[in-house]
Amino acid sequence: MTSCRICGGTVQEFFDFGRQPVSDAFIDPNGGNTEFFYRLTVGHCTTCSMVQQLKEVPRDRMFPGDYPYRSSGSAVMRKHFAATADRFLATELVGEDPFYVEIGCNDGILLGAISRAGVRHLGVDPAESAVEVAREQGCRVRSCFFEEATGAEIRAAEGPAQLIFSANTISHIGYIESIFAGADALLAPGGAFVFEDRYLGDIVEHAYFDQIYDEHFYLFGVRSVQNMAQRFGFELVDVEHLPVHGGAMRYTTARAGERAPTPAVAEWLASEEKQRLAEPEVYTEFGARVEANCRALVELLTSLRAEGRSVVGYGATSKSATVTNYCGIGPDLIPFICDSTREKQGRLTPGARIPILPPDAFSDPYPDYALLFAWNHAEEVMAKEQAFREAGGRWILYVPDVHIV
């Protein structure tokens, strides 16, 4: 048994993914062979309902200065964040000289839109290589981790923020209490702390097991976020389900008593009751589905290899680290993975050590099958690679079950 990082309650382990690498630590084939591994186990708090990992990877290992992920690489995400910026500019960032702070701004995919609108802003992100891209767009960014002291320092230097926003970042941070303390120090009266992350309900319903990797320390649900916010002096006042990443949720929190909760909060709490997300049996069932999917995937890949069929990977995602390392999928089953991110090309995937090649390798020649690790962008990818289908190629997906399209 482990103590909950949020409330101190008992965390019951429900799945062990075994020895896993840092998911974005792509390997230079000409460099050393040293890799950091840890045991990826996940559990459910019986008190506050927070799903969380039992071991925490040091933040400097997960988010070094050369962190390779770039949010702007997806057209879907560019559209999503453009709409998010428009919404905030019309609602939260109004009045005289509003101030916007973004935690984990990455390459400025959203921060740039705020900057171009002329709104005073500041991004906070430890990945210097991504931060430089944001700065080239004219964004103001501090290259560091956000915590309690950071919020106080920004408040002293810049004044209070009307809105603090974070996308796909807060769930990465084990020290949540410090994040909320920093938000409390920085927010203006009546201000909002808004964050969006992959949604636990979708992960459980669709067996999206590869959403569990080192960076996703927590898997947020509405009930667990409500409990978390209350514990740290905030209140969950609105929720909105989003279609990105296979299903995400946007949570709006404010200091307790400063805003009235919308009906959506109660509606989603009722939905989670119906889905039984607070019951341990749900996670036992989830684990059984994960094991079945992994067995089926390895059996399919092994069968295709025996038949002489060619199979390559598509999208060297962070998620793929969980799949390849837990399933034991290496270059013998998938000789390479194509990825459009320049920083990943020419490297090897962590742990499994599958070569990563640029997109033009995908059509030179087309394989018989492509294992789509970037399944959350399936519609965008398949539209882009229509010629692959026209050449007779088939896509392999492994969630919610193993199937070929």
TrEMBL record:
C-methyltransferase domain sequence ranges: 243-400
Recite the UniProt keywords alphabetically: Methyltransferase, Transferase
Say yes or no: keyword Signal present.
Answer: no
Q: Which InterPro entries match?
A: Methyltransf_Zn-bd_dom_put, Methyltransf_Zn-bd_dom_put_sf, MeTrfase_14, SAM-dependent_MTases_sf
Which residue ranges does the record assign to the Methyltransferase putative zinc binding domain? 4-63
Q: A Gene Ontology MF term for this entry?
A: methyltransferase activity
Tree of life domain: Bacteria
GO biological process annotation, one example: methylation
Q: Which PANTHER family match?
A: BLL5978 PROTEIN, TRANS-ACONITATE 2-METHYLTRANSFERASE-RELATED
Protein name, as recorded:
Methyltransferase domain-containing protein
